[in-house]
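Consider today's protein:

***
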Amino acid sequence: MKIKSKMKNLLILLVFFLSFGFANAQTNWMDETKLKGTIGSYEIVMTLAVPFGGATTCFTIGKYYYSSTKKNIDLCSEDNEKIIERVDGNETGYFILKNWNKQIGQTVVGSWYTMDGSKSYPVSLKVIAKGEN
């Protein structure tokens, strides 16, 4: 009986540690690209990256802010086409960018759309850094 009890305790301990590890999984940013430019006439700074670590369903992750406010807006692309922005947990718009992972000095173009697609603005961003967060 003592062996069964010890095995049961060991199993419970193992499940606890594995659960703790999954709950604290982190997503690392790989292949980061930092961009600066405009959405329409509004200046922005954006960082996009490829996630690594399994704690997200996003193909692309990132953040951006308007130069006037400097409040970060989260970005996630779950279909590798639309990069959706989230403000306070709500999806508020999305980007479609053409080949964002370019070399320093190159320009990335695309559009920003409201979630319902009723408004859009041209996006022009210049790659200003690679591999930094």
